[in-house]
Structures are given as C-alpha cells and as structure tokens.
Write a structure and sequence with these properties.
It contains five helices and no strands. It has 137 residues and is mainly α. The chain folds into three domains: 42 residues, Arc Repressor Mutant (Orthogonal Bundle); 44 residues; 42 residues, no CATH class. The protein is elongated, with a radius of gyration of 32 Å. It comes from Hominimerdicola aceti.
C-alpha cells in the first residue's frame, strides 16, 4: 500500500506526549498517527452503525446466556436425580429422627458456607469417623 506524505498542525504538548509514547513503544510518529486514525475511524463507524450493531450484539449475548442457562439447568437436574437416589438409599438403611436431621442439615449448611461449596468427601468421612470414635469412648 502506497503511503502519502502530509503535514499536520498539532499542539506542542500533544506532540511531546506522542513522542514520549513512540519512544516507549519503539514506533515512529507516523505509525502512531496512522494507528490513532484507524482507531478513530473504526470508532466512528461503530458509532454510526450502533443502531444496528447494539441490538444484534444484545441478541447474541441473550442467546449465549440462554444456552448457558439451559446447560446449567440440565446439569442441576441430573445432579438432583443423583442426590434423590442417594437420599432414598440412605433413608432405607438408616433411621434418623427429625431432630437429628435438623442437626445434620445445619452442619451441612455451615460446612458448605465455610468451604464455599468445595466439600471433600474424604474429609467428611474422616471427620464423621473420628466423631463416631469419640462418641463410642
């Protein structure tokens, strides 16, 4: 692409700031001005076409959001099915009073809050095993 030489008038402080930037970025003044003009023109194009771009962008964001929500919902449903199965199995094996169930729920809520949902099954088993030994003593 052929380059055209042209002259421009710029205030001294803007030129000094440009030269400082060019030195730090190791680019020429011409490269900086060309990049700045391209950015300005692109920004103007986006601004003038924003009545088309903004609704299209909003629609794309909404669609991506809906897809993400659908995936999360399906995952939560599968998870809930597995939890329901575990609860049914455990309820068939253990007899737990309503008060014991309240205590277990309170402890579970506190553990999830404390660990921010990063519960380690090994830690739970070890803790419950240690508590069982302490209760036996």
């Amino acid at each position: 692409m052929d380059k055209i030489r042209t002259g421009i008038y710029v205030s001294g402080d803007v030129l000094a700031e440009c030269d400082d930037y060019c030195t730090k970025q190791d680019i020429s003044r011409s490269e900086l001005i060309e990049q700045a003009l391209k950015l300005f023109l692109a920004t103007r194009t986006i601004y003038t076409k924003s009545n088309v771009l903004v609704p299209e962008l909003a629609e794309c964001i909404a669609q991506a959001s809906d897809e993400g929500i659908t995936k999360i919902s399906k995952g939560l449903f599968r998870y809930a099915v597995e939890v329901e199965m575990l609860i049914a199995i455990l309820a068939g094996v253990f007899e737990v009073s309503k008060n014991e169930l309240k205590d277990i729920r309170r402890e579970a809520v506190n553990n999830v809050r404390r660990t921010r949902g990063k519960i380690n099954l090994d830690d739970l088993i070890t803790r419950n095993f240690d508590e069982g030994i302490a209760d036996d003593e």
